[in-house]
Design a protein that fits this description.
By secondary structure, the chain is of the alpha+beta class. The longest helix is centred in the middle third of the chain and has 16 residues.
């Protein structure tokens, strides 16, 4: 009988699964603007005299991951910003009788951009730029409702220019509010408020009220009852932060939350 050949069993091979590296998925929490901004230098483009700056304004935004900072790029020059600001101020009578919220937000946004480009970092150390004569072009001080009626500003009294004269050497400031009165042959007058100031910081001054008067005397007698109301509205007592000043424009913020924009004038 022929011998029976016995073959060893053929082993069964199990396929080995490929080794796939585990990737850690990192959620993206920053928007594209924030990422691309890190690749762009935040310095002044060109020389400072051109006023061409790269300005960043931070805003808050909400997304799927939660609130995150959003940065808006603004490449307008200082002169372009000032031009846009003057355009926004057209037809609002210096804001004295109120401004619609959208317009107010536009103005305050332009003010903030200008303040970020302030060419005078220490205004109180450069009082030659702060001193002189200025004319008010915008203020958040408003006269509304019963105050406007009581002061005759609806039909009887017409407001003119608001001037400010700063004597830096003496630490004195004079505010003049021009007006005319209908029914009195358009008699012209002015409210004058005199104050003194002292330096509190590199950009802030403390202001003290000294005295005030309405001229001519005829109008003082007419408005004597409203003199106290006028002082409550226009009294500058407190502190003022000079947030922007150059050769032609000055911006300030006071302790009451008001904003003032003034332009240099040749008035003496």
């Amino acid at each position: 009988m022929a011998p029976k050949l016995v073959y060893p069993p053929i082993p069964t091979f199990q396929p080995i699964p490929p080794i796939i590296p585990r990737l850690k998925i990192i959620p993206i929490t920053h928007n594209i603007v924030s990422f691309t901004h890190s690749l762009i230098p935040t310095t002044v483009f060109g020389d400072s005299s051109s006023g061409f700056r790269h300005t960043r304004v931070a805003e808050q935004s909400s997304g799927l991951v939660g609130a995150a900072d959003k940065e808006i790029e603004d490449y307008r020059t200082t002169e372009q910003l000032k031009s846009d600001l003057y355009q926004a101020l057209q037809g609002i009578n210096r804001g004295i009788f109120g401004v619609q919220s959208a317009k107010k937000s536009e103005i305050e946004g332009l003010v903030a951009l200008l303040e970020s480009q302030n060419p005078t970092s220490e205004p109180t150390s450069n009082l030659n730029k702060v001193g002189g004569s200025w004319r008010l072009v915008y203020s958040t001080i408003t006269i509304l409702g019963s105050k406007r009626t009581k002061l005759g500003l609806r039909d009887f009294v017409v407001l003119g220019d608001f001037y400010q004269t700063i004597d830096a050497d003496k630490g004195k400031a004079v505010n003049e509010i021009k007006f005319s009165v209908r029914g009195l042959n358009l008699l012209n007058g002015q409210l004058t408020i005199e104050s003194s100031f002292n330096i509190a910081s590199k950009s802030r001054v403390n202001i003290s009220y000294e005295n005030s008067a309405i001229t001519p005397e005829q109008l003082m007698n007419l408005f004597r009852r409203n003199h106290e109301l006028l002082l409550k509205i226009f009294n500058p007592e407190g502190w003022l932060e000079i947030s922007y000043v150059d050769d032609t424009m000055k911006i300030g913020r006071d302790d009451k939350g008001n904003i003032f924009i003034l332009e240099r004038t040749e008035k003496t």
